[in-house]
Amino acid sequence: METTDVVIVGAGFTGSTLAAALADGQRKIVVLEARAGRNPRFAGELLHPTGVGVLDSLGLLSPLRAVGGRRVRGFCVLRDARDEPLRLPYDEVPGGRPDGLAIEHQAMVDELRRQAIARPGVEVRCGRHVTDLVRDGGRVVGVRTDDGREQRASLVLGAEGRHSRLRGLLGIAPRQRLVSMNAAVLARDAELPAPGFGHVFLGAWGPILAYEIAPGEVRMCLDLPVGEERGAPAVIARLRREHAPFVPEPLRGALLRALDEGAIDLAACHAISTDRCTAPGIALVGDANGCAHPLTAAGMTLCLNDVRLLRDGLGGLDLGDRGSVDAALARYQDERRRFARAREILTDALYDVLRATDDGTRAIRRGLFRYWTSGPRARGASIALLSCAESRPRAFVEEYLRVVAAATGGVLRGEVNAPSLAGRAGAMLAMGRRAIREIARATARRATVQSAASRSSTISSATALANEAPASAIAMP
Ligand SMILES: Cc1cc2nc3c(=O)[nH]c(=O)nc-3n(C[C@H](O)[C@H](O)[C@H](O)COP(=O)(O)OP(=O)(O)OC[C@H]3O[C@@H](n4cnc5c(N)ncnc54)[C@H](O)[C@@H]3O)c2cc1C
User: Residue 397 — pLDDT band, cuts 50, 70, 90?
Assistant: First the structure.
């Protein structure tokens, strides 16, 4: 048995950043990582400016740039291979930071670990699989590893990813669904239609995300239905047949060459959400709290929001003072939940609209493109939501209504699959139903968040008010 101030479970993206953020020269922080070597699973590589701001405030941005991190200026969306890229630049977000970051995931985690270990008081131990919690009455006071050892700590932070074991041990039941699969491919000698931008190509079964992670190297994440093809050769055949035609040349050629080499990584895309993430003496952080489909590339920005909240909430706190620690954790739970809910709602709605599988979503998608071409205000508001610079449900609802208004004009003019009066009426009805569903969801979730906040901590009214506060006050470091 060994005692420390903080034990962090998992030295992935979140755990490593968290260790660096909490290191204050006084605290002893032990990070336990199950894997002895690199994690072979494909994971996120593109960070929005809100997340980049947190990395910068922790002194971690320059080291990541030094190991190959590339600036990203925003997103481009293309409806098909012949379409002109529609740019959504970050610099159209008023007051926002203009640059995101793209970097190979393992290179990023390796560097973050190096940076954490270099800070006084931080130790990362690999090959230590945490299997259980150690409790003293109702309080978590440490963890147990698979070799039977106990690591006791004033505070336990679980950063072990979306399949968190600690979540189950705390009795937190997530809402969970498998949305799709992603095939990750590295296209070499490749060129993007708009260099410096992340790209979303539409038209295939699901969206294709592409961004440059090194000069001439473009990562492509191709969205696939769950469980239709078994084995890499069948998946590759499908990607060649059904996805590649929607990628413009010369990138398509680079994609096909990469598929010829057979090097794809398949990753499951889950939507996992939770309402609770703390108990006395412990908090869950990052994907351990849940995740959304990677379409909006916001997972790590959300992880960094958690890290920032904990750094601010625990900064200068005596971790031996259990009452103060638990109050800080309760505040963290309330604040992170609001941010995460906004993300879930936006991701689900956007995924539906960009896939556009029925008359209603097809009409809304046309409206969305019309809205984006209406000017920088519209694009700035959309990219603010997408990049987590804006996280109020009210802002989502307002933007959704603007898009629906833009879509309505198109439907009335007969820009639908069946332009007859009945066809237009049908599309209008389907669009209305879809809009009502999304708006009801956004407002219902918000009510849940507020009522949960009022039950769970003494800062309920502050949290409810924060719901209406300017997003920059909440989202930016
Ligand atoms: C296909 C795909 C594409 C994505 N694209 C993006 C993107 O472009 N942008 C973005 O922001 N996000 C993206 N994401 C999400 C992003 O990958 C995650 O948000 C991020 O990796 C979460 O980091 P984490 O450290 O919380 O969890 P993980 O990365 O899962 O790390 C958890 C760590 O904990 C360790 N661990 C697990 N269990 C234990 C245990 N019991 N004991 C000790 N250690 C343990 C693991 O070995 C691992 O090192 C994507 C996700 C997927 C699946």
Answer: confident
Give distance in angstroms: CA of 286 to centre of ligand 1: 8
pLDDT at 414 over 80: no
Q: What is the Å distance from ligand 1's center to 162 Cα? A: 7
Distance 450 CA to ligand 1 centre (A): 28
Residue 394 confidence class, pLDDT cut points 50, 70, 90: confident
**Ligand 1 pocket, residue 300 CB under 6 Å:** yes
CB-ligand 1 contact for 48 (6 Å cutoff): no
Measured from the Cα of 41, ligand 1's closest atom is 53
CATH code reported for the domain at 2-68+104-174+274-320: 3.50.50.60
Domain spans, the chain: 2-68+104-174+274-320, 177-270, 344-475
pLDDT at 454: 39
Q: Strand, helix or coil at 186?
A: strand
pLDDT, residue 348, reads 86
Q: Which residue reads 């270990």 in tokens?
A: 117
pLDDT band at 470 (very low <50, low <70, confident <90, very high): very low
Check if CATH label 3.30.9.30 holds for domain 177-270.
yes
- Where does the pLDDT of residue 419 fall: very low under 50, low under 70, confident under 90, or very high at 90 and above? low
Average pLDDT, the chain: 88
In this predicted structure, what is the pLDDT of residue 412? 72
